[in-house]
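pasting for the record
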Amino acid sequence: MGAKIISGTETAKAIREELKLEIDELRAKHNVVPGLVTILVGDDPASQSYVAAKNKTAHALGIHSEQVTLPAGTSEEELLELVGKFNDDPKIHGILIQLPLPRHINEAKVLYAIDPDKDVDGFHPVNVGKMMLGEQCFLPCTPHGVLELLMRAGVETSGAEVVVIGRSNIVGKPVANLMLQKRPGGNATVTLCHTRTKDMDFHTKRADILIVAAGVANMIKGDQVKEGVVVIDVGVNRIGTTESGKAKLAGDVEFDSVRDKAAAITPVPGGVGPMTITMLMKNTVQSARQHAGLV
């Protein structure tokens, strides 16, 4: 019979419908229009594609969206000045710097310059610290999306053995932290594995919920998981091209062999990916509410 497919595409669509109603109500009742600016430096095709997708989603929801595209030679000082301008702009509630930045620009310095109250990516140390403490803050979009997928799929996390593979600041560390917190979608016992973990299979075979964010195509096979596991595959890896020239994608999990043993699994594409942009929109709406004193 195979595993239940946890569709990020369908879940993201449901959340966007909820957000659209909320945005319409904010405009009608409070004259508040959530505003998001995306700043892109350079002409990296993948970054251009991501930014275009974010703007398209924002417009579809009724979010005021601005895009600033700067040449690759833009100085750090010019970028910081622009961030400062949007920090002071009352129409803008969310500032997103598309990463990676050109090498001559200090990424941390730019991200830290964003007003934490407009940091809808959840990368500023103030928001990371608040997340760690379990306080109200903007949660990083991909980990937040993982939590929403699990909750909306009806997966019980309380008391579950959760194994996270990958320790990045963007996914691995924050999702591990969120899963162990005393909160809905949390209360799990969490093991965080990485490249220096000894006997990875020992840990993966114990997992009730396995979250894989290592960036290695098909690294987890069916013989490394137990029957009935719930698998969230965050990886998106290009493994070639199709006959029509489109990129061929694979997750960090070997889908076919793991699906045979899993109770539920996310596909790639169509799993965690669509959730990331949707949670960015959710954070932007949350920011607009906060700036209007509606929380």
